[in-house]
Amino acid sequence: MIGLSHYLVLSALLFCLGLYGVLTRKNAIGVLMAVELMFNSVNINLMAFSHYMMDTAGLAFCVFVITVAAAEVTVGVALVLSVYRNRNMIEIDKLAELSG
């Protein structure tokens, strides 16, 4: 039987993988993908607690997190495309400043 602890361990592992991706990626698209992985791990936690506590608040927060993640992707990809058009690269460590 799969219990709450299984979901929490899975979510913690996914969050740690996302955090590792954010800290080590040099490509902006890779960083955005790692942030999405972290958002999905939070959604797993919300849904697991919602299921085991017999409450619908977790579902509402999960829908809110999905909406925020979609907005984050939209803005993030727009920024990456804008930087790529101006600088012809999207490596984060080589971009010291956004102007000029």
What does this structure look like?
This protein is mostly helical and 100 residues long. It has helices at 4-24, 28-52, 57-87. It has a single domain (4-94), classed as Helix Hairpins (Orthogonal Bundle). The protein has 3 helices and no strands. The radius of gyration is 17 Å and the shape is elongated. The mean pLDDT is 88.
Fraction of helical residues: over 70%
Please write the string of helix (H) and strand (E) elements: HHH
Largest sheet features: none
Q: What is the 3D form?
A: elongated
- Extract low-pLDDT stretches: none
Number of strands: 0
Mean pLDDT: 88
Second-tier CATH architecture: Orthogonal Bundle
How many domains comprise the coordinates?
1
Count of individual helical segments = 3
> Which strand-content bin applies to the residues?
under 5%
